[in-house]
Amino acid sequence: MKDGRPPRCISCSIFRREIEALQSSGRLDLSVDYLNSMLHMAPARLEARLGEALTEARERQADQDVVLAFGDCCSHMEAFETEPGTRRTEGINCCEIILGREAYRRLRREGAFFLMPEWALSWKKVFIGHLGLLGPCAKEFMQEMHTRLVYLDTGILPVPHATLAEASAFLGLPVEIVPVSLDALLHSLLQATHAARPHARD
Amino acid sequence: MDRNFPQELLETIQKADRAGAQAVIDAWAVGRPFHRVIPELLSPTLETFGRLWASGKDGVSLAEGYVAAKVAEDVLSRVLLDASGDGTPRPSSKGPVLVGNVEDDFHPLGRKMVAAFLRADGWEVHDLGVDVGPAQFVDRAEETGARVIGASAMMFTTAKNVAKLREEIDRRGLGNRVQLAVGGAVFKLRPELVAAFGGDGTAASALEASALFARLARRASEARGEVPA
Fold first, then answer.
1. The domain that contains B34 carries what CATH number?
2. What is d(CA B156, CA B54) in angstroms, rounded to the nearest whole number?
3. Contact A186, A28 (CB under 8 A)
4. Which residues from chain B sit within 8 angstroms of residue A140, using beta carbons?
């Protein structure tokens, strides 16, 4: 933080509601720009947009620290996060960031396929539109790779029970709803915020 | 008019239609010995599909890649079943190899596709699953006599764990004698990471894994003083 100015944050929109809740409760003081979470399905485009967003942030305020609220979602993410005054939230992906490492690893080892609240509402776009999974192929694929869908209920949006039931029927997997606090996300954001300070003075 | 079976099979794969693929294979098999399905139908189809995949121009979807691997598995299962029942020649083994996702990597699809295509091409594949630590990889390589370990990592964060596997191979004095094939999205997009993290080679797609494993197995055999396969 330079001259008491808080860092700027560029975040995946997957965290938008959760970050807004943290801001309105006074637990997080951070200006945030969001990039569309569907860019996750096109990593090269995400990389380009993230590069543009960082350039824009630097042009607005050359010496302002920047926090990236993203997982390792494109192939050159580490090049962004090692730029002076820039830090990324710790975690492989958004699910690890919001769950914390241990809970994430345990659920993944159990075969969980995670649905974050924003993506749960767009599941058809992801599975059919982007991945091309249709008909019996969708069930075969998901049942071979996973044991269940795990909806991460961050408590901001109402749980979309009908949507989850539809996804469950289409993908052939049961749904588990796991309540998740915002503590791990907040911790990750604050950690990145503080880490960016000494980094900027290097 | 003669049917173009490889083209028909390719089209079913591109529609992610596993049942349709099976119907094409069944139609091809009428009046033909089934053990010829791999060289005469599956391989030419997958070679074309592999070229589309590697070029990246035709937008091979996750579903298409998955169905291609399942078709290869289906064909291999049937060839092996026929061989066990009626004395049809069983495909010879090219030797044991390992595949697994490195520590912290939980993306199984690429690894499973590589395993399917390797098996279809005659390798004895030991699939260690996801989140495999370096010691576990090397222990199994020593147990099975595998000359090649195939390590999969999707992201840069997890690809760094390939370097730990390299260290473990070298620490046990197995460098060159056990070759390390690496794969996954990040290696395709950043091929310089293959050498940076200690890999001995990579392939542009799962379909090209068998050729890579053959090259690396030959290198390992030479390092062991064995006659190359």
1. 1.10.1240.10
2. 21
3. yes
4. 18, 70
- ipTM score: 0.86
**Pair B71, B128 in one domain:** no
- Chain B residues in contact with A78 by the CB 8 A cut-off are 156-157
- According to DSSP, residue B226 is labeled P
Between chains, do A92 and B104 touch, taking CB under 8 Å as contact? yes
- Going by C-alpha positions, the residue among B72, B55, B57, B54 that lies closest to residue B13 is B72
pTM: 0.88
> A140 vs B18: CB contact, 8 Å cut-off?
yes
The dihedral through the CA atoms of A110, A100, A11, A60 has a sign that is negative
**Which residues in A have their CB inside 8 Å of a CB on B?**
43-44, 72-73, 75-78, 92, 105, 108-109, 130-138, 140-141, 144-145
pLDDT, tens only, A160-188: 999 999 999 999 999 999 999 999 999 99
With a cut of 70, which residues of chain B have pLDDT below it? 1, 56-59, 85-92, 227-229
Say if domain A8-95+182-201 classifies as CATH 1.10.1740.
no
Partner residue opposite B18 with nearest CB, options A76, A131, A137: A137
Question: How many angstroms separate the CA of residue A24 from the nearest CA in chain B?
Answer: 33
Q: Please say if the pLDDT value at position A197 is more than 90.
A: no
Cα distance from B62 to chain A (closest Cα, Å)?
5
Tell if the CB–CB gap between A75 and B70 is shorter than 8 Å.
no
Does a structural domain hold residue B64? yes
Structural domain of B174: 96-224
Q: How many helices (H) and strands (E) does chain B have?
A: 11, 4
